[in-house]
Specification:
The structure holds two protein chains of two kinds. By secondary structure, chain A is of the alpha/beta class. Chain A has nine helices and twelve strands. Chain B has a single domain (4-319), classed as ABC transporter involved in vitamin B12 uptake, BtuC (Orthogonal Bundle), CATH 1.10.3470.10. Classes of the chains: A alpha/beta, B mainly alpha.
């Protein structure tokens, strides 16, 4: 298991309000790490900081020993693919074109996407379960279909680190399961996958590691059974679950 | 080339506009065919530079409108909203007001371009580092309002009615009395400005997904802002310098053409330049045809009068489709 992220003691603020303050930790390549917590706990802040989009007031985040902000913009974009929770698009591009944008960090200044780029795009569309949507206009898709196209965009980058903010939020149960399985497979290929989400059942079944975030701090960190234990569920989520999170035993029909 | 048809169609339209511009409005065709020198002179020294400049000005407005709409992710953006047109106008008005324009034909254009540059720098300074599209557009409105207020001040303090009318007519925009000197002055600036805008094309595509996603895809927002504002200041500054303030082209042309390029900001840039050029040459031709004896119509007036009804139609028809 190789370390992908070395994170120092971090503090992130929006204006004067501290949104996140955490102790040092590391994140591994080849693992599916899930960040869970109630609304406003700091999940998105943490994932944005990992993406290098939010400069912490104090503390450093490193990949391969190098601070994130020391990478050139393009280099960082090749290493880290980030999918925000917001699925709006300014212009109604075709769905395939949206996925193709995932290859932008690799395009040379004057050249067109290569055959290899196109293969990556096709492959990402296939894996995200978005085949059949590609010729449609993005604004004509349902929110779940949009989510799959945007996921395909992030996958098309083929980055060794994949950060996804609520990738399953808009999806129906079958696609939630399919996408989470896909992310698990990505992790098994050696990608460092970090997701946020609210489906504790899916997280507890598929995640290798769970970070429970509450009020801007990490209150539990470990394997799903350990991090999502009854006292944490009660204190953080306000749930009475004496038996912990029930195991999902669904599979794709 | 994916957009071959739309580009070829627009090039054809430019050709038609140029031919219409050459021969419409009482060109002595038979004398010209007889090889009479006066007719040749009209063609080479009056009509051709006017058409060339019309194309250049329209192209500058079209491409910067397309670039800014892409950056702001808003079909209402045009060179006016970042205050660059108004700043260029202020430079020119200052040249007229202080009587500097009479010194040399180059003073007014130079001051207009300087005004555009100053406006662009002020905009970047006000907006500051880490500016979002919203702060930039608000700063642009502030810069534009300040420039317009100073223009009004100059008109307020005009020493006499003639000076006032000179400023007022100049502000309406015109391609009358165009010479090859204007074309030589505007060409490199507009071409370079257009190239600078074109260099942001992939960033504009990435920005379709919002500023945060674009940043995660390696887009340097500050760099894009600087390039877009610098490119617009160069191209539109030069356009205003030689033709006065001409509105509407930068707004309407990208909007008209967007549906033909799959709504992609990058693919919209070149067609918008061509379409802007064609539209302005046609509008100028219409201006000449409609102008009667002694009453000269101004180009800025025609572009708006011709464009607005068409634009209304477009807005209404696109409102029925998905956003």
């Amino acid at each position: 298991m190789t370390l992908r992220y070395e994170i120092g003691a971090l503090e992130c603020r929006y204006g004067m309000r501290t949104a996140l303050r955490i102790e040092p930790l590391g994140l591994n390549a080849g693992e599916l790490t899930a960040i869970v917590g109630p609304n406003g706990a700091g999940k998105s802040t943490l994932i944005k900081a990992l993406a290098g989009l939010l400069q912490p007031v104090t503390g450093e985040i490193r990949q391969a020993g190098i601070q994130l902000h020391r990478f050139s913009d393009r280099e960082r974009a090749r290493r880290i693919a980030y999918l925000p929770a917001d699925s709006r698009l300014a212009w109604p591009l075709t769905a395939r074109r949206v996925v193709e944008l995932g290859r932008l960090p690799f395009l040379k200044p004057l050249s067109k996407p290569s055959a290899q780029d196109q293969d990556r795009v096709d492959d990402a569309i296939e894996r995200a379960g978005a085949a059949g949507l590609t010729d449609r206009r993005f604004d004509a898709l349902s929110s779940g279909e949009k989510a799959r196209i945007l996921l395909a965009r992030a996958l098309a980058t083929d980055a060794p680190t994949l950060l996804l903010d609520e990738p399953a939020a808009a999806l129906d149960p079958r696609h939630q399961l399919a996408v989470t399985q896909l992310l698990k497979t990505e992790a098994e290929r050696g990608v460092c996958v970090v997701i946020t989400g609210h489906s504790l059942e899916l997280v507890s079944r598929f995640a290798d590691r769970v970070l429970v975030v509450d009020e801007g701090g990490i209150v539990a960190d470990g394997a799903p059974d350990e991090a999502l234990r009854p006292d944490i569920l009660k204190r953080v989520f306000g749930l009475n679950a004496p038996g912990g999170v029930p195991r999902l035993d669904w599979s794709l029909a | 080339m994916r957009d071959f048809r739309i580009v070829a169609g627009l090039v054809g339209l430019c050709g038609i506009a140029a031919i219409a511009g050459l021969f419409a409005g009482g060109f002595p065709v038979s004398e010209w065919l007889d090889g009479e020198p006066a007719a040749r002179l009209i063609l080479i020294e009056l009509r051709l530079p006017r058409i060339a400049l019309g194309f250049l000005v329209g192209a500058a407005l079209g491409i910067s409108g397309a670039g800014l709409q892409g950056y702001f992710r808003n079909p209402l953006a045009d060179p006016g909203v970042i205050g660059v047109s108004a700043s260029a106008g202020l430079g020119a008005v200052a040249a007229l007001y202080f009587g500097l324009a009479a010194m040399s034909g180059l003073v007014l254009p130079a001051m207009a371009i300087a005004g555009a540059g100053l406006g662009g720098v002020t905009l970047l300074l006000i907006a500051g580092r880490g500016a979002t599209a919203t702060t930039l557009i608000l700063s642009g409105v502030a810069v534009g309002a300040l420039a317009n207020a100073l223009v009004a001040l100059a008109m307020n303090f005009s020493p006499n009615p003639w000076a006032l009318s000179e400023i007022a007519y100049w502000l309406m925009g015109s391609l009358a009395n165009t010479s090859w000197t204007d074309v030589k002055l505007a060409t490199p600036l507009i071409a370079f400005g257009g190239l600078v805008i074109w260099s942001t094309r992939r960033d504009l595509d990435a920005l379709t997904m919002g500023e945060e996603t674009a940043r995660s895809m390696g887009v340097n927002l500050r760099g894009v802002q600087i390039r877009l504002i610098a490119g617009t200041a160069l191209a539109v500054g030069a356009a205003v310098a030689v033709a006065g303030a001409i509105g509407f082209v930068g707004l309407v042309v990208p909007h008209l053409l967007r549906r033909f390029v799959g709504h992609e900001p990058a693919r919209l840039l070149l067609p918008s330049a061509l379409g802007g050029g064609a539209l302005l040459v046609l509008a100028d031709t219409a201006t000449r045809i409609l102008s009667g004896e002694g009453i000269a119509l101004y180009l800025g007036v025609t572009t708006a009068m011709l464009g607005v009804p068409f634009f209304f139609h477009l807005v209404r028809s696109s409102a029925r489709q998905a956003p």
